[in-house]
Design a protein that fits this description.
The model has no long low-confidence stretch (mean pLDDT about 95). The protein is of the alpha/beta class. A 7-stranded parallel sheet has the order 3-2-1-4-5-6-7, sandwiched between helices. Helix 1 crosses helix 6, helix 3 packs parallel to helix 4 and helix 4 runs parallel beside helix 5. The protein has a single domain, classed as Rossmann fold, CATH 3.40.50.720.
Length: about 220
């Protein structure tokens, strides 16, 4: 098996993040797990012998520090998977404005901060993969979850722009837009979504997709 460079999972919770980490680990990739609370990833980190970092995606300084640790311990990431979600409920006319701003900062600015941390080394290497766990609310928003819908729409726009910018550099930017409820044992099981992340990373350049609509079929 050829040498693999690290995969960073931002938002390494017990669902999609953990499943994606396991999928890349099974293929021989060193894994780094970023989460808001390192206690939630302790067992997974031991299982995979993974590096861990406690980060707030709304705090660019904590992200910069975490990526620096990853680079020092296991090297420059080959793959970034942004799976984090700051969940803030509320309808457009009722949501607290500070909470709305914080959600956009964590979900959108945080995603961009992660991208900017990995792109220089990917450009130098002429390869890399940047993946987003997207959501159907980017296309069909829910009134009571206005901040989530806006954040997912903004992420989708951001990643489309990134794909256009970074593709010439050999960097594959793609998203898996999930149009259903993620649940173990069903058509939207985390392991199935993780397989889509891995499949996108493994695609040959001529076959690169920017967005996959995951409908559980």
């Amino acid at each position: 098996m050829p040498e693999r460079n690290p995969v960073v999972i931002v938002g390494a919770g017990p669902g999609i993040g953990a499943a994606t980490a396991r999928r890349f680990d099974a293929a021989g990739y060193p894994v780094a797990l970023f989460s808001r609370n390192s206690a939630t990833t302790r067992d997974l980190a031991e299982e995979l012998s993974a590096a861990t970092a406690e980060v707030d995606t709304g705090d660019s300084a904590s992200l910069m520090a975490a990526f620096q640790v990853v680079r020092e311990i296991i090297g420059d990431p080959e793959v970034l998977v942004f799976n984090a979600l700051a969940f803030v409920p509320g309808s457009p006319t009722e949501i607290d404005l500070d909470a709305f701003d914080a959600a956009l900062s964590a979900n959108v600015t945080g995603a961009l901060a992660c991208v900017q941390e990995v792109v220089p080394a990917m450009r130098a290497a002429g390869r890399g993969t940047i993946l987003l766990t997207g959501g159907g609310m980017a296309l069909q928003p829910m009134t009571r979850l206005a901040a989530v819908g806006v954040a997912k729409a903004a992420q989708r726009s951001l990643f489309q722009s990134l794909a256009a910018e970074l593709s010439p550099d050999g960097i594959h930017v793609a998203m898996v837009t999930i149009r259903g409820m993620v649940k173990e044992g069903g058509p939207f099981a985390p392991a199935l979504i993780a397989e889509e992340h891995f499949r996108l990373h493994e695609q040959l350049r001529d076959d690169w997709e920017v967005e996959v609509f995951f409908d559980g079929q």
